[in-house]
Amino acid sequence: LAEGKGVAVLEFFFPEALELDKSLLELAGHIGSQLARVAERRRAEETRQASEERIRAVIDTAGDAFVGMDAAGLVTEWNREAEAIFGWARHEAVGRPMADLVVPEDLRTAQRAGLQRFLDSGEAAILDRRLELRALHREGREFPVEVTVWATRIGSTYGFNAFVRDISERKRLEAELIRQALHDPLTNLPNRSLLLDRLAHALARAQRNGAPVTVLFLDLDRFKTVNDSLGHTAGDRLLAAVGRRLADSVRPSDTVARLGGDEFAVLLEDTPTGAALDVARRLEEALESPFSIDGHQVFARASIGVATGEGGKQTADELLRNADLAMYMAKGRETTRHASFEPGMHTAVLERLEMEADLRRALQAGEFFLHYQPVVRLADASVVGMEALIRWKRGGDVVSPAVFIPVAEETGLIVAIGQWVVSEACRQAAAWQREHALQPPLRLSVNLSARQLQDPGLVPDVEQVLNACGLDPNCLVIEITESLLMSDPDVAVQRLRHLKDLGVRLAIDDFGTGYSSLSYLRRFPVDVLKIDRSFVAALGAGPEDAALAHAIVKLGHTLKLNIVAEGIETPEQLSELRSLGCEYGQGYLFAAPLGVDAVAALLADRRTMR
Ligand code: C2E
Ligand code: MG
Ligand code: MG
């Protein structure tokens, strides 16, 4: 019917209508088309309804919240997602002021003013753009949203609609990504980028207010040996634990960063140089007690470089590099482990780098040689042994081991150098033994570094050398400094036991300068204690000073150890040591370290230093 088939229909129902005259037919046609128009309107209405339902369904199932309000600011639209993200049901929201429901209180005035401005002047600040705003949840918490608002106009009345998306999760991920980019995953500390950024800001502030900015650069000593001996997982744990201790030792406003590897840095703002050195000492102290890693006691001391900058004088990079240089200079130091940057350090570091390079060639070039210092029995000054002391002929100079051994330790060259010392000294001792038919046999002392004790090849090497030169293992004394034993007691104890098993004797060198407790001392299978020079030098100064040397001698005797006093220079020191019951000694009073020829002459002659 709707398609204007009025005549055909009439024919069907009223066949006799064919008989009807034309005017009637026209009328019928007219009725038919009227019917068709009505049907069309209904169909249009149905289509409109269907499409509205479709739109509503789309809006309702949309991932975004869809909200609408009228020009008075009252809610007109509120879909399911809007219910979810704002916490208000549709029937609660519709008809109430939009601002009261979703706009945080501090933004409401601005929101109202914006709406009014638009209604008055058509000036649209927020329409048709994607905006990030704060929104309010029914429970009062605020959350970030992304909003697109557009205005509709029917006649002269405005309405506003918006899609709103909760972007809390995206924001959280963004923040996390930024955090990750600026932090070290292992320690959770700021990384180099963040440190440099904060440093640059601090320097900019310093330029305005004149306050100093200080950077401490820390590098762990011998971290590599931890990694090598306990594995990387243990190494990682140690780094994380070190990071925590460092962070706990400074103010929350200071930045502790991990630069990479075993390097850390601390940024101190507004701290005068003196106070910065206090912080350096505090950090040293914080790292003094051992860490417990996988059931091992591990020491992780650090060398610290301190550099203070003023705004406008240097960049963040330069300041960090200065602190790094100062750290490098601190590395070799024995007592304090920190150093402040001085401009002369650039050349000093260059010299040190040159020394490293030369040291690498020295072994091949045969530039090392040994001096031997007699060890005597104090009662009659007879020579009972020799301590082998290394020397380096570098160009025209002879370099002291006190200068190059720390560098050799740093670079790991000490392992190869130490091997050479052991084999050269043993070869020499065996030769003297044969040539002079020494009775009792001469004891030969060799100094060993921490790094060598960490080397798994040490014990087989020593064994091989002893066999090759035919030296009685009991004639070899290996000297280890006390601080070395303490740096990794577990590995040390094990290695020393294996050396003992070869029949070698063990001595603790420079005793009294390290940190060893008596209980530790008992764990090490040592035979000899060497009293450090400083205690001997103090002898004769007053009764308290003698008391220390006296205590060490008594301790040694209680533990059934031989005692050797180092650095005896005066007859007074000698007689005092004798009266304390110390049996052995060495020092300039008897002989300085001697060349091979001088030793041979001494042995051939009478073997006593009187
Ligand atoms: P050390 O083992 O304690 O050696 C004693 C040092 O004191 C030697 O210095 C010696 O020359 C010096 N000395 C001896 N008698 C006196 C004295 O009466 N007065 C004074 N003021 N000093 C005296 P040197 O030869 O310069 O050695 C320094 C340190 O270098 C040694 O201390 C030792 O720790 C280390 N060292 C020497 N040779 C080697 C080596 O072959 N390997 C390793 N790893 N370290 C070595
Ligand atoms: Mg020694
Ligand atoms: Mg010594």
Question: What does the radius of gyration come to?
Answer: 44 Å
Strand content: 15-25%
Low-confidence stretches: none
Distance between the termini: 143 Å
Largest sheet, strands/sense/barrel: 8 strands, mixed, barrel
Give a count of the beta strands, DSSP E runs of length 2 or more. Answer: 21
How many individual helices?
A: 24
Helix/strand/pairing class, anyone?
alpha/beta
What is the mean predicted local confidence, pLDDT? 88
Small-molecule binders here are: ligand C2E, magnesium ion
Structural shape: elongated
Please bin the fraction of helical residues. Answer: 40-55%
Notable characteristics:
single chain; 610 residues; alpha/beta; eight-stranded mixed barrel; five-stranded antiparallel sheet; 21 strands; 50% helix; 22% strand; elongated; binds ligand C2E; binds magnesium ion
Describe the structure.
This protein is of the alpha/beta class. It has an eight-stranded mixed beta barrel with strand order 13-14-16-17-18-19-20-21. It has a five-stranded antiparallel sheet with strand order 2-1-5-4-3. Strands 7-8-6-11-12 form a five-stranded mixed sheet, sandwiched between helices. 34% of the residues are buried. It is built from 24 helices and 21 strands.
Short description:
By secondary structure, the chain is α/β, with parallel strands linked by helices. It has 24 helices and 21 strands.
Topology of this structure?
Elements: H1 6-13, H2 22-61, E1 65-70, E2 75-78, H3 80-86, H4 90-93, H5 98-102, H6 105-121, E3 130-136, E4 142-154, E5 157-166, H7 168-182, H8 192-209, E6 213-220, H9 223-230, H10 232-248, E7 255-260, E8 263-269, H11 273-286, E9 291-293, E10 296-298, E11 302-309, H12 316-331, E12 338-340, H13 345-362, E13 368-377, E14 383-394, E15 397-399, H14 401-411, H15 414-436, E16 443-448, H16 450-454, H17 458-469, E17 476-481, H18 482-487, H19 489-501, E18 505-511, H20 518-523, E19 528-531, H21 533-538, H22 543-558, E20 562-565, H23 571-580, E21 584-585, H24 596-605
Parallel strand pairs: 11-12, 14-16, 16-17, 17-18, 18-19, 19-20, 20-21
Antiparallel strand pairs: 1-2, 1-5, 3-4, 4-5, 6-8, 6-11, 7-8, 9-10, 13-14, 13-21, 14-15
Helix pairs in contact: 9-10, 12-13, 13-14, 15-17
The structure holds ligand C2E and magnesium ion (2 copies).
One magnesium ion (MG) binds next to strand 18.
